[in-house]
Amino acid sequence: MTNIQQNVLISKIMLKQTPSEDFTYIYRGALFAEIMDSLLILIEKNFTEKERSSQIFKKVYFILVEILQNVTKYQIEEEEYFANSIMIVQKINKNYFLTVGNLIKNTEIEDLTSRINKINSLEKEELTEFYKTVLTNGKYNLKGGAGLGLINIKRKAKHNLNFSFSNINQEHSYFYFTSIIPEKEEDVIDFSFNNVKKTHESFKKDNVSLLLNNVLDQDKLKALLHFLESSIQEKLPYRKKIFNILIEMLQNVIYHSSNVENLGNDKYGIFLVSETEDHYKLLAGNYIHKEKETVLLQKLEKVNKYTLDELESAYVKELKATTSKADSNLGIIDIRMKSNNFLTYNIEKINDQFSFFILEVNIGKK
Fold first, then answer.
1. How confident is the model at residue 191 (pLDDT cuts 50, 70, 90)?
2. How many other β-carbons are positioned within 10 Å of the β-carbon of residue 54?
3. Does 21 score more than 70 pLDDT?
4. Strands 279-289, 95-105: pairing kind
5. Tens digit of pLDDT for each residue in 141-180?
6. Which end of the chain is least crowded, N or C, by CB within 10 Å?
7. Span 31-64, pLDDT tens digits
């Protein structure tokens, strides 16, 4: 068995979570308009048709749009730090946490802190009057936004705005902002930015650009590919190679993962993308029943032993012999052929019934 060296910490964090209706989307990178639009589509696909008609989804979506618009007003687009902005969308125990971290000038910290504290100090009726005042005279102005977005977020969430700063240098800091939408409006949810900042540092250290922890299906796969098309800036044909491997890896999760009973027998998995100057690293993980481990390991070992010349003939042979994609080696053969690299994998024991299978693929840029 080949051990995965990079991103182990992140993988183990995700593995500690019990499969549930909870989900996590984390994106680290430049937050420009096309990325934001694709991110909204991807998150929207996480909700069922019934959920999309619910009031809580409308609230989550409205606040998410306001947060992303707020970013465009406040962030500094200096390439080194701009590319390290972070967006985190989580559902935990039916409560939603919408977080963004973006670059700002240190000279803006005092003014921004004062404005948010002012908004947080106001009760419902006071906030409504303050909104009308700002809307009328426009004097509460910061980069043309008049602070209306922040006021709208508190009015919609009906909870205080959470924020923190992390100093980078004498000129810049990261501004972290979180809006919490609880299942019940009267609930008070404990929150700390410690985990947000640790996650951000971990993603920067490992060059991770995207992490999904969710039930995966064909609709989410399409939305994910649309999002990655916006975020991956590589030129063709290299981008086509990445997308083809992405599709095979995600299909592999959908076809080969074991259903998890407390998720309504849905396919639960994680997906992670990281990048260096030399290559992309794609990681997909899913649950498998313990009795499937031996067969899966045998398939992977067999495919890794093939020479590149042998892979093509093995693919053709497999294609002729197999009637069910779920039972074949086609996916993993195809991934190895297109990546032109050995497959890296690991299996983590979860309990007596399930294990978690992690597949990692490196795609060289040359």
1. confident
2. 12
3. no
4. unpaired
5. 545 444 788 898 998 888 899 999 999 889 889 999 999 9
6. C
7. 777 778 888 888 887 776 677 777 888 888 899 9
Tell me the Cα Rg of the chain. Answer: 22
- Name the pTM for this structure: 0.85
Three-state secondary structure call for residue 302: helix
CA distances from 142 to 106, 116, 149 (A): 14, 12, 11
Query: For the chain, first and last CA: distance in Å?
Result: 27
Mean pLDDT, the chain, rounded, equals 79
Tally DSSP H helices, then E strands, for the chain: 14, 10
Q: Are 283 and 300 in contact (CB under 8 A)?
A: no
Local confidence band at 237 (pLDDT 50, 70, 90 cut-offs): low
For residue 21 the two structure tokens come to: 């209706």
> What is the SS3 assignment for 167-218?
ECCCCEEEEEEEEEECCCCCCCCCCCCHHHHHHHHHHHHCCEEEEEEEECCH
What string of H, E and C letters represents the secondary structure of 82-102? HCCCEEEEEEECCEEEEEEEE
Q: Are 28 and 203 a contacting pair, CB within 8 Å? A: yes
Are the C-beta atoms of 275 and 239 separated by less than 8 Å?
no
Asked whether the predicted pLDDT for residue 193 surpasses 90, the reply is yes
| Separation between Cα atoms, residue 159 and residue 144, nearest integer Å | 25
Pull the structure tokens for residue 45.
């696909």
Give the residue-averaged pLDDT of 126-130: 89
Residue 294: phi, psi to the nearest 5? -60, -45
Residue 19 predicted with pLDDT over 60: no
- Residues in Cβ contact with 301 at an 8 Å cutoff, skipping those fewer than 6 apart: none
The pairing of beta strand 344-349 with beta strand 279-289: unpaired
**DSSP assignments along 230-275, one per residue:** HH--PPTTHHHHHHHHHHHHHHHHHHHSPPBGGGTTB-EEEEEEEE
